[in-house]
Amino acid sequence: MGGMIIAIGSDHAGLPLKRSLLATLEAAGHQVLDAGTHDGASCDYPDFAHAVAGKVAAGEARFGVLCCGTGIGMAIAANRHAAIRAAVLHDATEARLTRLHNDANVACFGARTTGEEVAMDALRAFLATEFEGGRHGRRLDKLAPTALA
Ligand code: RB5
Question: Domain 5-148: which topology?
Fold first, then answer.
């Protein structure tokens, strides 16, 4: 799973998990763009979700990784970007299926809800799984902003 450019970010609650996942990614040979936060001071998760989502949407990073207390706020914020499909992951099964079926491009984790080793396994599965396409591609087309009118 080495060799990709991956953007990562967290708020204060997700910072310890972000540090672990960042180290795992770098050890696997990825180039990681760290959008912050860099210290434990209280901060606002949308700032980091938008920074990471922007890099993925612009093609500057293949995937994004976001950590907050639950992963939920990060996913809500990241999914406001039209090109982003962010999923909150609790295990490797969810990670594999959201790549296969949803072509998810941002993985969100909750530092208060998901253990570090479980999150690492989920992230490895996320990065190792290709989108299945076919009927799932048709369904993704129905998520486009133009399909909502
Ligand atoms: C911060 O306390 C917490 O609200 C945030 O990390 C996240 O869990 C929001 O979804």
Answer: Ribose 5-phosphate Isomerase B; Chain: A, (3.40.1400)
- Detail the DSSP E strand segments found in 21-123: 31-34, 63-68, 86-88, 106-110
Q: Cα–Cα distance between 109 and 138 in angstroms, integer?
A: 27
Computed over every residue of the chain, the mean pLDDT equals 97
Please confirm, yes or no, whether 108 is among the known catalytic residues. Answer: no
Question: What average pLDDT does the segment 34-49 reach?
Answer: 98
Residue 145 banded pLDDT, cuts 50, 70, 90: confident
Does any ligand 1 atom lie closer than 6 A to the CB of residue 69? yes
Predicted TM-score (pTM) of the model is 0.97
